[in-house]
Model the fold of this input.
Amino acid sequence: MTLFHAVVLAIVQGLTEFLPISSSAHLWFFPWALHWPDGGLPFDVALHAGTLLAVVLYFLGTWIELLLNGFGIHYPAHASSEQVQSNRRLFWLLIIATIPGGIVGFLFERFIEETWRNPGPIAAATIAVALLMWIADSTLGLRRILAHVNFGDAIGIGSAQALALFPGVSRSGITIIAGLWRKMTRETAARFSFLLCTPLIAGAALKEVPQLMRMQPSGGVEVALSTLLIAIAVSAIVGYAVIGFLLRYLQTRTLKIFVVYRVIFGIFILLLMFLHR
Done:
């Protein structure tokens, strides 16, 4: 894999991990459509490490408060008791919401990767989720904020996150959809989605590290270390910018542009699939 390929795919990862258009579909699409080489496990780990770094840095202050408040520590000192209690409840709701995706990923990730990572299923998932997004985006009465999150939200949105294992679904897309169905504001649904994805992105990156370390001594790592580090940096920078952009965008705008993009992208995949036959 050349440095050019690595940078392009790192930009794609940074953009599509957090925009509701599916990173797995786009990272599959570019090598498939352009006949680019596969970077293999090391490159996958680098891309996940980059977007993990982005979401951790963006929400670092929030996560510090949630962690400390979650374990009963009053932080920061000027915070009210109500805010600390709200953060404590949100922290444990995020933990609960992570469980469905973790279980499904542990049990079925390899099967899903081997069975569904093909043009037809990816295009179908891309278009189907676009239709769900259009319906959810038309929901009235979107007023709930993070302070209103409850156990039902955690179970519903956490279960939706488990569907993100299917290429073309989009982790942020399906969880934002679930948040809208729970009457959250668009910005709140996106913020909860990004907080929720942090543990699973961390798990996805860390799960592969032992295998990567086993490959290193045997010479199984073909991508240059400098290329991997650049890929991490690029995906982190792009991902950080995209998180901030989407949260600001959804304060005043709808998801319609992403609905249209997903439909066009899905149709384009189907068209290429038929032309490749």
In short: The first helix runs from residue 3 to 16.
